[in-house]
Amino acid sequence: MQDPTHCPKCNSENIYSDGNLWICPECSHEWSALASSEQPVEAPQDNLVRDANGNVLNDGDSVTVIKELRIKGSSSAVKVGTKVKNIRLTDAGDGHDIACKIDGIGAINLKSEFVRKA
């Protein structure tokens, strides 16, 4: 196993090994000495809207809500399992990238991380 001298996240010298992992007690970062030579794998930045499972969403798709979503300024909520038809993809800039209408609630914007493609 390779013997690193600094934490790759905070550059601290106070690191220790625990089996196959190296641990930094200052920032709680854990890494493998074997994986440190490889480049980290990041999610593709292709500007596509993806659901919670990573499926690409398109205009007109149907989605299912996977988490109860409370609506700000209201006592109502969108229940788990609510099916939303005919979504529109938007670029609101605040993370709400799905515009839709839900029966009983009306027009609403949702975050794609809380839905699953139906």
UniProtKB/TrEMBL annotation:
Residues 49-118 form the Protein YjdM C-terminal domain. It comes from the Bacteria. Residues 6-32 form the Protein YjdM N-terminal domain. InterPro entries: YjdM, YjdM_C, YjdM_N. Pfam families: YjdM, Zn_Ribbon_YjdM. Gene3D superfamilies: 2.20.25.10, SH3 Domains (2.30.30.40). Belongs to the YjdM family. This is Zinc ribbon domain-containing protein YjdM. It comes from Bdellovibrio svalbardensis.
